[in-house]
Specification:
By secondary structure, the chain is α+β, with helices and mostly antiparallel strands. The protein is about 35% helix and about 20% strand. It is built from 6 helices and 11 strands. The strands form 3 sheets. Strands 1-3-7-6-4 form a 5-stranded antiparallel sheet, with no helix packed on it. A 4-stranded mixed sheet has the order 2-11-10-5, with no helix packed on it. Strand 6 and strand 7 form a beta hairpin. Helix 3 packs parallel to helix 6 and helix 5 packs antiparallel against helix 6. Keywords: Membrane, Transmembrane, Transmembrane helix.
């Protein structure tokens, strides 16, 4: 059994043990009617911790990068064959030269069709030597070793160049996330020399590690929502506030409002994960991607959960006279915890 899985099970059992042990005699429940009950909020708080540990287990068992099945063609003169009468080779579909692998392990494959003047018969031999020129990300060193290519005549007027790009090879190379630009050249003496530019975009592949950030955001966000809910009372209020403690956060998570706020915020943060990470072709190319994603998920969590709480207060206003009064004479919603739970 994976160590991370053992820790995940231990986190759940630990949350269950704390829930049974910590009752209202140890910490004041923030809602009426909770006295004498077990604090099951520890189990709720243990769920994202266990999920993060489970994701850690998945991250260590992710499959390696795929490999190309065809080796790079060594440029050379084909074995005989008459000259081919054509003025030039033109790329039929420029979009085929833009390759996106995303977070897939790969390899990435592309088929680029070159058009030429129609021939009476299919040229023979059909194989065409192609050389790999380069593959670079910005000013970084060349990694053309990742590219395999070969070409052949597929019709009397079309030459197809197949390009295969590997993410990495053990003990040899590894492509970091980002956008790479490269080129291959047709070096067949029967044809005009033609260079074919192409690009490929790669993003971070180990998605469980990225999803761990989401789990931690849910855990920290739940505590933050409790803190801003438990803000100090107004000077005119006589309502006591719950002490800030893990037990009180757990009590809050057992309330319908606390649990619903966490679910709403978690869903919003998951939406940011999907749009920012899964929707990006080059995510992970810089450290700022991690910081931006984590901050955006936390912001989405807090915004969605507090909006849900505010909507609950608006749709269920407190009875007249409950809580303090503000400068306008209305009810001070922040002063009465009964209003917010």
């Amino acid at each position: 059994m994976q160590p991370y899985l053992v820790l995940a099970v231990a986190a759940l059992l630990g949350g269950l043990a704390l829930s049974v042990r910590v009752s209202s005699s140890k910490a004041r429940p923030p809602t009426k009617g909770s006295r004498g009950q077990h604090n099951w909020g520890f189990v709720v708080l243990a769920v994202p911790v266990a999920f993060a540990l489970y994701l850690g287990s998945l991250s260590t068992t992710m499959p390696g990068a795929g490999t190309c099945t065809v080796d790079a063609t060594t440029p050379g003169v084909p074995a005989g064959g008459p000259a081919i009468a054509t003025k030039s080779l033109k790329i039929k579909d420029p979009a085929a030269t833009r390759i996106s692998l995303g977070s897939d392990k790969g390899p990435a494959n592309a088929a680029i069709v070159l058009e030429m003047d129609p021939q009476k018969t299919l040229p023979s031999p059909r194989q065409v030597p192609v050389g790999v020129d380069s593959l670079r990300r910005g000013d970084n060193p060349d990694v053309s070793v990742a590219v395999s290519t070969h070409a052949a005549f597929t019709t009397s007027s079309n030459l197809t160049v197949w390009i295969c790009i590997e993410r990495g090879r053990a003990g040899s190379f590894a492509l970091d996330p980002g956008e790479y630009a490269g080129s291959v050249t047709v070096v067949d003496p029967r044809l005009p020399a033609t260079t074919i530019p192409f690009s490929i975009t790669l993003s971070y592949t180990n998605w469980p590690v990225v999803l761990i950030c989401w789990s931690l955001v849910v855990l920290v966000g739940a505590g933050y929502v409790f803190v801003i809910r438990n803000e100090p009372a107004s000077p005119t209020s006589t309502v006591d506030r719950a002490p800030l403690s893990i037990a009180e956060v757990a009590w809050f998570m057992t309330s319908p409002l606390g649990l619903a706020s966490a679910v709403t915020g978690g869903a919003a943060a998951l939406g940011v994960y999907a749009s920012s990470y899964l929707g990006s072709a080059t995510w992970g190319a810089s450290t700022s991607d991690w910081l931006t994603l984590t901050g955006a998920m936390f912001g989405a969590f807090v915004t969605a959960s507090t909006a849900f709480r505010f909507a609950n207060v608006v749709s269920n206003p407190p009875p007249s006279g409950s809580g303090g009064t503000g400068a306008t004479g209305g009810t001070d919603l922040a002063a009465d915890p009964a209003v917010l739970t």
